């Protein structure tokens, strides 16, 4: 009776919140918000602080992945210039950079839960490591040095810089989470257009050593102003590592989605690798051949935003089906029958839009896994999806 009277004395709004609240990743550990009044926290899904945070995530995504995905420019240069020409291991540099930016994501997420007070500084530390790696790589005398610096060290730094976006974004956006992730993912598509042009110009004019040093300094100063806004919405002070569960790794729903995710990653990069060489077989000049990759990266920008928007409003399976069907049909009907350059350009537009937006479905996918396995934390599910994509990339 005492408990009943206490419940009846609660204000209606508080009573509704107590029994109708559906936990999200931002409040799964709300017992550790250290008695902060929620009204004093920045609003979710809007407000200038949320959009500044999203802009910071967009910039982090663009710098980390845009530069890594532009390694093909360096690879072509290294193959034709001393002291690296003739080496068969040059491709390993880009593989290490991309793979290590993806694969350790669950480990970084776990460390951030273990040391929550330090999690705001992970991005800054990651960018410092990335820029140091590029600076040190300019002193390389063989390909092994480049693999360790421009490959391994850059990849680890990129993972540290990028992973906080996954954890923090779930705090800042709830109803618009899919759209927010789509906007963030589109950052690499935009820089994937700009960085290759800039890098090619620098390499042709100043050589690889000066280019790497310029990138080391330039990327740091490009990222520095945004680090102020790349922060969690809710400050936590105590470790939650023990509360993280990996039981979802054996959940059937997760396994099915992860299998599809890894298979998509296995095939996603193949067209972009061969687009320029295929265009040259059709008689394209260097500029017209490079335009294929430009169109592909440009359309991933729109594809990411569109898929993220759809993921907020439709079941994730519909989004995945639309992305996969569009990508597969474009390969069979456009690239497979492309005997003219115009047809190849159309393929780049269609494939970039549908295949490039696939990862924007991950936020909705993570929540589907959480529905099946309640102990799963959406950020950790997201992290393992990143790992699956890294496996496909490698």
UniProtKB/TrEMBL annotation:
Subcellular location: Membrane
Family: Belongs to the major facilitator superfamily. Monocarboxylate porter (TC 2.A.1.13) family.
Limits of the Major facilitator superfamily (MFS) profile domain: 253-394
Keywords from the named record: Membrane, Transmembrane, Transmembrane helix
DNA repair among keywords: no
Keyword Membrane: yes
Main localization category: membrane
Transmembrane segments: 50-70, 90-114, 121-140, 152-172, 179-199, 211-232, 253-275, 287-307, 319-338, 344-365
One GO molecular-function entry: transmembrane transporter activity
Record organism: Aspergillus thermomutatus
One Pfam family recorded for the sequence: MFS_1
Classification lineage: Eukaryota, Fungi, Dikarya, Ascomycota, Pezizomycotina
Listed GO CC annotations: membrane
Membrane topology: Multi-pass membrane protein
Protein name per UniProt: Major facilitator superfamily (MFS) profile domain-containing protein
